Each structure stands twice: as C-alpha cells, then as structure tokens.
Amino acid sequence: MDKLTFIGAAVEDQYISAGIVDFTERKVATNTLRRKRVDPRATSEEIINKWADCLSEVLSLNKDGEVRIGLGIPNLVDYQSGVYLDTDPNRYGSLKGQNIKKLLAGKLGLSEEDILIRNVDANFFQGEIFAGTARGYQRSFGITLGAGLGTARYRNGIVEDANYWKMPFEDSIAEDYISSGFLLKRFAKLSGIEVGDIPEMKRFYPDPSVELAFQEFAYYLGKFIVQVSTLESPEAILIGGQMESSYRFFFDHAVNFARNEGVKIPIIKAILGERAYVIGAASIWSEVLLHS
Fold first, then answer.
1. Total domain count, the chain
2. How large is the average pLDDT for residues 69-92?
3. What is the pLDDT of the chain when averaged over all its residues?
4. Kind of pairing, strands 168-169 and 172-173?
5. How many angstroms separate the CA atoms of 186 and 197, rounded?
6. Which long-range contacts (CB under 8 A, 24 or more apart) does 146-149 make?
7. From the DSSP assignment, how many helices (H) and strands (E) are in the chain?
C-alpha cells in the first residue's frame, strides 16, 4: 500500500466529489478535495465526462506513481462488473446498461481493475468508522439522509449495505417517509407552495409549515431508529448525509422520540461531511489489499 496512491470518489444526486486519501493520517490529503456539479438527467456521455473531469483533476495531483480509485454510487449497480442498473431518469438513468468501470478507465488511462465500486452510503459510514464519530465501536449502524434513505451495518470489521430503504414502513416503504422528497411533498401540502429542494423550503421559515413538516419527518425518523435498534442491536447509531445542515429542525426531536421508546444506545451525528464519502470510498482498497 505504501507505493500506491488511493483516490476516493463519491457520486451524489447532483455532484461528484473526489480526493486523495491519506490512510496514515486518516484524512483527505490537504488541498486535494475536488467537487463538481453534475446534471443527473444528462446523457450518459455528459455524465461520464463530468465524473472523469473531477477524477482527472485529482489524478493530476498524484506524484507517487500507481493509483487505485474507490468509487461510491448511490443507485443500483453491479459492483463487481461495474454495469449501471438503475433506470430512474432523474438519478443518472441514462447510464442504464453502461459499464462505468470501463468508461471511466478509458477516460482516465487506467485499467478497469484499478477501479472498485461500492454503495455510496456504505462508503459514507465506512469513512465515519475509520476517521469520524463512529470510530471505536465494534457493532454499529449508519443512516444517511438525503434524496434517498441510505442504511449500512458494521460488524466484524466489515461494512455492508443494509438495504432498509425498502423496508415496509407505515403505508409504504421507509424511504417514502425518511427522505427529502417526503419533506418537500409535506411542505407543499401544508403550505400550498411547491419548492425544488430543502434549502429553498427552509427560506420560508418561520412559516409554521416548515416546522410542522420537519416535526413529521422527525417522528418517522425516530420510529425508524427504534426499529433499527431492535433489528440490529448495534452499540451505536450514526446519522449523517446531505441533510446535516438541517439538523436543528429535526435531530433532537427524532432522538427524543427514540429515547421515549426505550432506545438507550448512543445516537450520534456524523462530523466529516463529504469527506466521509471520499475516505470511505478509498477504504474499499484497504479492505481488499489487507485480505488479499
């Protein structure tokens, strides 16, 4: 591992972030983090070009020879082959059937074997376990909040996608109640105002509809935490993702609900932000090389 440079990259709903990861210091190397906006509804060629541009900028900073890239993808992918499987037109659906590894390797002048892919939420949790607030627990569970609901478990030194987004919950599935989409729909119903994202919705605060939508969200998140605690028996639950800037509206309410329902384990906030995604993505290689 000493002769290799490890780059972590994370695809989000409208961005890609990437950076060189220093495993010794447990951080993204200074001045290497890059972030580019990507239109998830663009053509497959436009999307791949944007991803490759971001990675190329980071690659240009490498002075140590060989490179390995870990990439986090939020949607359905055959992680082994690199073939994109998701069809949602609003979430990179134009990539359906495309081999992401092959396309990126060609753009970057690398081999397909130099790129590994894993679920982006599992990477986020891995980053917090390795360098953040979840470090030190032997059995923990991560919840990432955003356009979708991400869940991952950590046991016996291994992080794996828990896939609880599709767990039966209320009248549908968990993701329908614990995601930014739920908040936007509830705010629209309560206020009669349609907005495009959470920052726009928060600009209407102190409109009571904003607070009420977040309170309902907190209630469902609290119920979900109770269910996860029962199903997984973790030592701690970590919460992070793209809604960290909105914690003041819902985090304490969700935790208080869980406490009133008997959950006593630590419920902790993630602290690394997008760096957790990048560190966790690069960590795919540390796991592979340590077990090879």
1. 2
2. 93
3. 94
4. antiparallel
5. 12
6. 146/12, 146/13, 146/179, 146/180, 146/241, 146/242, 146/243, 147/13, 147/91, 147/179, 147/180, 147/181, 147/242, 148/74, 148/175, 148/179, 149/174, 149/175, 149/178, 149/179
7. 8, 15
In this structure, the strands spanning 168-169 and 236-241 are: unpaired
Tokens describing residue 217: 């969200």
Burial class (CB within 10 angstroms; exposed 0-12, middle 13-18, buried 19+) of 104: buried
The predicted model gives 7-17 an average pLDDT of: 94
- Structural domain boundaries enclosing 162: 135-269
Phi–psi pair at 275, nearest 5 degrees = -65, -30
> What pLDDT sits at residue 91?
87
The 10s digit of each residue's pLDDT in 162-213 is: 999 999 999 999 999 999 999 999 999 999 999 999 999 999 999 999 999 9
ω before 208 within 30° of 0 (cis)? no
11 and 36 assigned to the same domain: yes
Q: Are residues 79 and 50 in the same domain?
A: yes
Same domain, 280 and 236: no
Report the alpha-carbon angle 196-201-207, nearest 5: 145
Instruction: Give the residue from 268, 215, 275 showing the smallest Cα distance to 28.
Output: 275
Mean pLDDT of 213-224: 98
Tell me the residue type at 273.
G
Is residue 10 within 8 Å of residue 123, measured between CB atoms? yes
Asked if 127 and 272 count as a contact pair (C-beta separation under 8 A), the reply is: yes
**pLDDT digits over 36-80, tens only?**
999 999 999 999 999 999 999 999 998 777 899 999 998 889 999
CATH of residue 64's domain is 3.30.420.40
In sign, the C-alpha dihedral spanning 210, 213, 215, 217 is negative
How far is it, in rounded angstroms, from Cα 108 to Cα 129? 30
